[in-house]
């Protein structure tokens, strides 16, 4: 579903796994945030998005005002157009490279979020339809701001986005690229074409990147044996997982653990 609250009502809390899409908008003050293994400070006229599956928490609340909006994919994405709008320009599809987005016209973003807040709490007739429309407008305004800030337009096909979501939602079971293509009603050739077009990488390389991000989250936040981490991202063999991790990152899982411990 969807919910919204004012930042001034939200107290700091420890990072936790999120199974929804979160948008934070700051109008004054600042927040120190933890997103996966990174710290980010959100300040006035800045916006941040969190993708479902990431770990997120608020470490410091320094008189921050603004809004935190969250929604599930099934609430917003009724059509392929909705899916493309959510992920356009890397808004909620940043492959875990979260960045602060400066908004040159903050009054527009604040105004839309105020309307969503009012609709959500008053709940007039057909308020969910109204909120869906406001969220669409909000995403359009944010995409416009990114273009003003010099970002190139990145508008991936809905099929590619469904592919990413399918991988993210089931790391634990090893599924071949062919099986993923069958689930999506397409071919491996088409998935590779889309992946190369939107990321410059093969579909398999994109999957590897998502697996590495998930493995890092598990090592950072969960007290698991390395064998358990391997199994959670689809590897039965711990040794093979360690080789895979080092090949993809340049360092072993043990070296990564030492890095985050320091």
Automatic annotation (TrEMBL):
SMART domains, per the entry: HTH_ARAC (SM00342)
Chain ranges of the HTH araC/xylS-type domain: 161-259
Keyword Lipid metabolism (UniProt): no
Record GO terms (molecular function): DNA-binding transcription factor activity; sequence-specific DNA binding
InterPro entries: Homeodomain-like_sf, HTH_AraC, HTH_AraC-typ_CS, Tscrpt_reg_AraC-type_HTH
Stretches assigned to coiled coil: none
Keyword field contains Transcription regulation: yes
Top-level taxonomic group: Bacteria
Protein name as annotated: Helix-turn-helix protein
Keywords: DNA-binding, Transcription, Transcription regulation
Signal peptide: none
Gene3D superfamilies, per the entry: Homeodomain-like
One Pfam family hit: HTH_18
């Amino acid at each position: 579903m969807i919910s919204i609250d004012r930042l001034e009502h939200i107290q700091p809390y420890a990072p936790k796994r999120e199974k929804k899409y979160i948008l934070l908008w700051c109008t004054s003050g600042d927040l120190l945030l933890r997103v996966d293994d990174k710290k980010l400070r959100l300040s006035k006229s800045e916006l941040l998005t969190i993708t479902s599956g990431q770990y997120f928490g608020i470490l410091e609340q320094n008189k921050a005002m603004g809004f935190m909006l969250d929604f599930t994919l099934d609430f917003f994405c009724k059509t392929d157009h909705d899916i493309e709008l959510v992920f356009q320009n890397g808004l909620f599809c940043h492959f875990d490279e979260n960045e602060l987005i400066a908004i040159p016209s903050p009054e527009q973003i604040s105004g839309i979020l105020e309307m969503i807040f009012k609709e959500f709490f008053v709940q007039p007739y057909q308020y969910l339809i109204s909120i869906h429309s406001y969220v669409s407008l909000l995403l359009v305004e944010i995409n416009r701001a990114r273009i003003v800030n010099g970002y190139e337009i990145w508008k991936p096909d809905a099929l590619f986005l469904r592919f990413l979501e399918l991988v993210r939602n089931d790391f634990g079971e090893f599924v071949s690229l062919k099986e993923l293509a069958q689930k999506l009603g397409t071919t491996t050739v088409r998935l590779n074409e889309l992946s190369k077009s939107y990321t410059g990488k093969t579909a398999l390389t994109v999957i590897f990147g998502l697996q590495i991000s998930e493995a890092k989250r598990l090592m950072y936040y969960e007290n698991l044996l390395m064998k358990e981490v391997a199994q959670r991202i689809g590897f039965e063999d711990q040794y093979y997982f360690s080789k895979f991790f080092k090949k993809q990152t340049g360092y072993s899982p043990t070296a990564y653990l030492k890095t985050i411990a320091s």
